[in-house]
Amino acid sequence: MARDFQTFLKQLEAAGELKRIAVEVDPFLEMGAIADRVSKAPGGGKALLFENPKGLSIPVLMNAYGSYQRMAMALGVEKQARGLDAIADRIEKLIQEAMPKPGLGFFDKLAKLPMLAEVGNWMPKTVRKGICQEIVLRGDDIKLSKLPVLTTWPEDGGPFITFGLSHTLNKDTGHRNMGLYRLQVFDDRTLGFHTQLHHDGARNRHGYGEDEKMPVAVSFGGDPNLTYCATAPLPPFLSELMFAGFLRSEGIEMVKCVSHDLEVPADSEIVIEGYVNPRELRREGPFGDHTGYYSLADDYPVLHVEAITMRKNPVFPATIVGRPPQEDAYLGLATERIFLPLLRMVLPEIRDMHLPAAGGFHNLVIVSLKKEYPGHAQKVMNAIWGTGQIMFSKCVVVVDEDIDPHDMNEVLFRITSNVDPRRDLLFTDGPLDVLDHSSDRFAFGGKLGIDATRKNKPFDNFKREWPKDLVFPEDLLARIETRWKDYGL
Ligand SMILES: Cc1cc2nc3c(=O)[nH]c(=O)nc-3n(C[C@H](O)[C@H](O)[C@H](O)COP(=O)(O)O)c2cc1C
Ligand SMILES: [Mn+2]
Fold it and tell me: Do residues 288 and 140 both lie within one domain?
């Protein structure tokens, strides 16, 4: 079922997941500080609708994705027993179907591929009209200062748009890309276009020449799954829009922009259209970031606004990033769950993985696996450092397959007890996230792998005997369970 953003808002409210704040609240620092406090509550607090932003008329929605329940609602799996893992299950099934099966003829294969047959339905569909163009502003009517753009931290370089979905086109491949990048408001008609080095958004702008204009459209809202998809670490050839269509089993409806030929989700709340001349750079930042620090100011392209379109009575989505955990921890959690089967295509030995919120998206990755040969843990570390955006991981911890990587007490127990630091630490170098501040060099630095597995004899050349785990017999535990009340405890 297709849902626009305001239908999602109503769903949140009906589920008791939304708080309306009627009093006037300042988008300058005050909204951010409130959302920071609410999103750090255990479980992520509620979504917040600021109905009365100081001096402005468009309400602001924050923390809409900031809990497991709301993330599941945004992705349409809140009624599934396995929640976000239900999406991983669907992807796993799709991968299974796509694998060639020996002994089947072409038509047998097609008949056995019910999911692949659906692919066409997931493609974006062009429509002629969209609610996002009920109001069209051009020329002198374009005033970014009319949008309730937040300044979230006191030393930020200015106000920043945080939940805008930037649409660009790769000139060489014709692939369209939708990514979530922050946009600093420089004045009423210009924005900073913070497309980081490693992301498709940056790759796309590099295809444009000296004086060429690269069209860009920034959409807000639409199907609530779009915002997640814009953050998902998809490879360049996999369209975020198609992924959004896959998640809801129905293609996203797209409408052509009013000032150029790019298309945007037709039921967006607001759309900012414009262009970037990729060689025109301007100092952007600093910005209180999801590293928990101010990320340093740097030069980024300028986005010139040519038109703003919106629906009547739009809602403006925003987030605050800062010291974890905050709303984006749940976007990261969705990625951890959804991308596990895709990572398993490269690393089938991985049983489970955990990207703890405290480690941002990639400072710490814990994986569990069944070791099958000498160097297996190290092979997995190296593969992670060579795969997609998980390559940014600074520290990779490997535990045995029977260890739950989400149980941090258990993980710390295994790290501290199983690891001989001289033997089990692997140091190497590689690309780091642009936002990382710990390394002397930009986007490059050290990596640490920790092999916290048991060191069994055949693989690990372990000379002594490895001791057994402490466990009570099953039947004893069962007997105690049935007799528990007799003990009067
Ligand atoms: C709240 C939030 C803010 C983000 N801000 C930026 C940003 O300013 N620049 C950037 O390049 N990536 C940013 N990201 C990460 C990208 O959205 C993410 O890496 C995405 O997969 C990039 O997509 P792409 O490779 O298609 O460009 C942000 C993510 C989140 C959750
Ligand atoms: Mn992409």
Answer: yes
